[in-house]
Amino acid sequence: MKNIIIFGENVPGYNILVLNEREVRAAAGILFLFTYTALLLIIFKGYFPFIKYVITGFLTDFIIRVFINPKYAPTLILGRLIVKNQTPEYVGAAQKKFAWIIGVVLAATMFILMVIVNSYSPITGIVCLICLIFLFFESVFGICLGCKFYTLFYKEKAQYCPGEICELKDRQPIQKISGSQLLILLGFIVLMVLLVVFFHEIFGIRPFDLFGLESHAAAK
């Protein structure tokens, strides 16, 4: 039982329990996909059952992560299957546990309000948005927003953070951003804004069926 209920894994060369960040990011991407899909169904179809399934699965997964063992969490198992051929990127388990406790609180709030009480409100909308932001940053950028709050509550320094962001060091040349790059980024943003302002009506015209497939299917 002691070997089952544990947070993180012992890996030679690391003096603390760690997790594989690649698995974590894959699992975050899976949860983001389902949560985002459920949100779209609510917005465009007014369909709520799917979000209730997602919330229940989300909460169950995070309870297993935090209170039993991350390696038995369904989404992390699936994540491990997906990235099993990639070299592991080890990160400290302590800050991840803190972040996932936040996840448990958010998921439990949604479960109570939407599944048990069967209600929706600005509260559920805000909580859902927070979850999506956390999952998006984790899966796309590799940034654990929940981990950022770890040092605010614990005196000890977090170890083995994703991308070695816990270590103070100079950025490598490939990471540095020049003034010309910033100008290109600014110019791109201005371009997109101008497109919205001056071409909205043109872009809003519905495209025609080039090969007439839609009309052919309707005729049948």
Low-confidence segments? none
Number of domains: 1
- Rg measurement, Å: 22 Å
Amount of beta strand: under 5%
Structural class designation: mainly alpha
- The ordered string of helix (H) and strand (E) elements is EHHHEHHHHHH
Summarize the biggest pleated sheet: 2 strands, antiparallel
**Mean of all residue-level pLDDT scores:** 88
Helix content: 55-70%
Number of helices: 9
Q: Shape from CA axes?
A: globular
Strand order of the largest sheet: 1-2
Question: How would you sum up this structure, described in words?
Answer:
62% of the residues lie in helices and 3% in strands. It is mainly alpha-helical. The chain has one domain (18-171). A two-stranded antiparallel ribbon has the order 1-2. The model has no long low-confidence stretch (mean pLDDT 88).
Search tags:
220 residues; mainly alpha; two-stranded antiparallel sheet; 62% helix; globular
List the helices and strands and how they pair.
Elements: E1 18-20, H1 21-45, H2 49-67, H3 74-82, E2 90-92, H4 93-116, H5 122-141, H6 145-148, H7 150-153, H8 179-203, H9 213-219
Antiparallel strand pairs: 1-2
Helix pairs in contact: 1-2, 1-3, 1-5, 2-4, 4-5
What's the short version?
This protein is mainly alpha-helical and about 220 residues long. It is built from 9 helices and 2 strands, in the order βαααβαααααα. The model has no long low-confidence stretch (mean pLDDT about 90).
